[in-house]
Design the sequence.
């Protein structure tokens, strides 16, 4: 990873500044408080955003609402640009938006999404996505004071921190997870033992159920035989009833025949009575018809008189219509005259000549109109009188015509009666023959009725037998149903026992499988708790020992480079620095400021090399940032920094220092100056 360009806007003492980072060693030079550390914080903020313990107010310039940083760098030929912004809210300062551009392809997303992409580009483990960027701090940039704080922390805290940085805290997680797994395996064994606690009891119950099944099968066989016998008895009774049913059916047929005969006798008797009455009526009609005298001359006279009245009525109707038409015409003329009269009375000017109409003219018109109206009224009165007279004459004509028609109808009826005498006499003869035939039919039906009654009497004995057999059939059906129910109950009990046996067998099979599983789980639990955990602990111990030896060797070498030969340094088992002078251990509190700085710097550089060695594939191994690494150094120690920088062999090294002597040790210098609270950069 090679930094190329950084743009800052409204961060701390910066308003708007850009700086170019060349390859090789670069010194950020300036007085204390000029803004050198802000550049390092801006680089870290651009890469990872705000840290969990970091507040946005510590970065955003006072009096501004927004701030931003833009970092351009290169990784293995890939150009990357990261942009992040800060925004002041009502109560706090928060990250507003973020974006990353890789080879001109821009991605805008959440703070977490952009951080994940950065970690992927840097080839950092994904587990650092939601954690403090310890890996970056211990391989690229750690403030000198923070490194001193790490050195002074209690051994267990520092050890856990280094475990995390080295990536071997996974052994501890494996140990913890293994303990959880062992606990869960033991719990699983206890649960499974609870499942199979009654396995032997269920095996005994299964044997009893199988014995019960054998008993039920015997009962089932007996119930089936009894049921078959009951079916045979019922079928015998049904056969007897079927035979009797034929006799009963024959009797019912005779009873039906008897009923039909009675109906026929009743009908024939009724027909005979009707014939007798009809004969009497015809004889009376013949007698009366012979007394009737019909006059054809009188019938023709009545017909002529009726036709005359009909013609007379038609002529008067025509005259009546004419009178009505005249009345309607006169009424129309009278209405027109009245309308004209009203129109003249309301007229002020003539519609034709537009001259005023005089009252004299109106009076003349009124006189003419009134005279015309009186004349029309007289004619209408005369016509209404004619209409009323015509109405009376028409009604009188209709009445006379009706009387003639009525008399004509009476004469016509007499004529018909006199003409039907012969026909009625012939009908009397025919009806007498029908009467004789009906009597013969009646005699025959009465004889058939008596013989049917006697036959029905002979079939009566079968009714009693039929009732007795029905009672026996009913009893046999009840017995059959009872035995069917018993058979069904036995079958159901048998099925229930078979179902219970099957359930027992399934449960026993499952519990046997659980029993086998318990043995496997016990074996697994033993292997995990006795073998695997010891293996992990041994591996972790060996890894930590190897790291400690490598770390201690590097720490000793860097420390000897930075301090006098009278002091030596190494690391104890908790990775705590141990400083010795002529085989006597020195307390950290009694060391000089320069010696403490040398310890922190040696620790920092050793840690950097160990991590880069372990994680050789991370993309930041060629970048080192040192913040005030010479605080408290003597002039002799400052000279040794040249050797340190030479030994680092980093592609890009950025130093922050206010020591002017270091300017002669580096390839490039970026001068930082603060005027009136605003930082400016000179390159």
Sequence:
């Amino acid at each position: 990873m090679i930094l190329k360009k950084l743009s800052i806007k409204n961060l701390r003492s910066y308003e708007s500044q850009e700086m170019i980072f060349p390859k090789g060693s670069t010194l950020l030079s300036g007085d204390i408080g000029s803004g050198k550390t802000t550049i390092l914080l801006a680089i870290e903020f651009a890469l990872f955003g705000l840290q969990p313990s970091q507040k946005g107010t510590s970065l955003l310039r006072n009096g501004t609402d927004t701030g931003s940083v833009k970092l351009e760098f290169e990784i293995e030929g890939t150009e990357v640009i990261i942009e992040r912004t800060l925004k002041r809210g009502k109560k706090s300062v928060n990250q507003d938006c973020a974006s990353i551009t890789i080879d001109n392809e821009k991605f805008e997303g959440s703070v977490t999404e952009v951080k994940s992409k950065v970690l992927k580009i840097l080839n950092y483990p994904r587990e650092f996505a939601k954690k403090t960027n310890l890996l970056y701090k211990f391989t690229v940039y750690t403030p000198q004071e923070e490194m001193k704080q790490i050195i002074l922390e209690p051994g267990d805290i520092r050890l856990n921190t280094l475990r995390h940085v080295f990536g071997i805290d996974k052994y501890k997680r494996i140990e913890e997870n293994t303990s959880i797994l062992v606990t869960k395996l033991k719990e699983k064994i206890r649960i499974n033992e609870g499942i199979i606690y009654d396995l032997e009891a269920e095996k005994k119950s299964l044997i009893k159920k199988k014995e019960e099944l054998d008993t039920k099968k015997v009962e089932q066989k007996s119930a089936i035989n009894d049921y078959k016998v009951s079916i045979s008895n019922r079928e015998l009774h049904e056969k007897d009833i079927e035979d009797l049913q034929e006799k009963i059916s024959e009797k019912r047929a005779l009873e039906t025949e008897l009923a039909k005969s009675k109906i026929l006798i009743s009908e024939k008797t009724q027909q005979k009575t009707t014939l007798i009455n009809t004969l009497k009526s015809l004889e009376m009609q013949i007698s009366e018809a012979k007394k009737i005298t019909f006059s054809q001359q009188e019938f023709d006279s009545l017909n002529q008189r009726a036709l005359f009245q009909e013609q007379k009525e038609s002529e008067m109707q025509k005259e009546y219509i004419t009178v009505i038409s005249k009345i309607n015409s006169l009424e129309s003329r009278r209405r027109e005259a009245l309308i004209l009269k009203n129109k003249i009375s309301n007229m002020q000017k003539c519609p034709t000549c537009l001259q005023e109409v005089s009252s004299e003219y109106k009076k003349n018109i009124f006189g003419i109109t009134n005279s015309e109206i009186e004349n029309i009224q007289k004619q209408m009165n005369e016509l209404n009188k004619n209409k009323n007279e015509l109405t009376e004459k028409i009604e009188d004509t209709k009445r006379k015509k009706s009387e003639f028609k009525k008399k004509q109808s009476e004469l016509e009826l007499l004529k018909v009666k006199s003409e039907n005498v012969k026909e009625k006499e012939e009908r009397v003869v025919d009806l007498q023959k029908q009467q004789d035939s009906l009597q013969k039919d009646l005699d025959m039906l009465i004889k058939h009725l008596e013989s049917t009654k006697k036959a029905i009497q002979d079939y009566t004995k079968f009714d009693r037998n039929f009732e007795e057999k029905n009672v026996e059939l009913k009893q046999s059906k009840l017995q059959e149903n009872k035995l069917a129910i018993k058979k069904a109950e036995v079958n159901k009990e048998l099925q229930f026992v078979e179902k219970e046996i099957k359930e027992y067998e399934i449960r026993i099979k499952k519990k046997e499988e659980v029993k086998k599983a318990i043995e496997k789980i016990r074996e697994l639990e033993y292997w995990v708790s006795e073998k695997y955990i010891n293996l992990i602990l041994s591996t972790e111990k060996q890894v930590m020992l190897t790291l400690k030896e490598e770390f201690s060797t590097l720490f000793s070498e860097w420390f000897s480079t930075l301090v006098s030969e009278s002091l030596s340094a190494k690391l104890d088992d908790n990775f705590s620095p141990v400083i010795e002078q002529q085989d006597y251990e020195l307390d950290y509190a009694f060391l000089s400021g320069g010696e403490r700085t040398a310890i922190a710097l040696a620790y920092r550089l050793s840690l950097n090399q160990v991590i880069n060695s372990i994680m050789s594939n991370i993309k930041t191994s060629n970048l080192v940032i040192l913040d005030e690494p010479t605080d408290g150094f003597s002039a002799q120690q400052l000279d040794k920094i040249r050797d340190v920088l030479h030994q680092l062999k980093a592609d890009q090294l950025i130093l922050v220092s206010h020591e002017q002597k270091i300017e002669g040790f580096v390839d490039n210098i970026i001068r930082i100056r603060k005027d009136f609270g605003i930082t400016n950069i000179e390159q």
Residues 461-562 form the longest helix (102 residues). The two ends are 22 Å apart (CA to CA). The domain at 1-137+620-683 is CATH 3.40.50.300 (Rossmann fold).
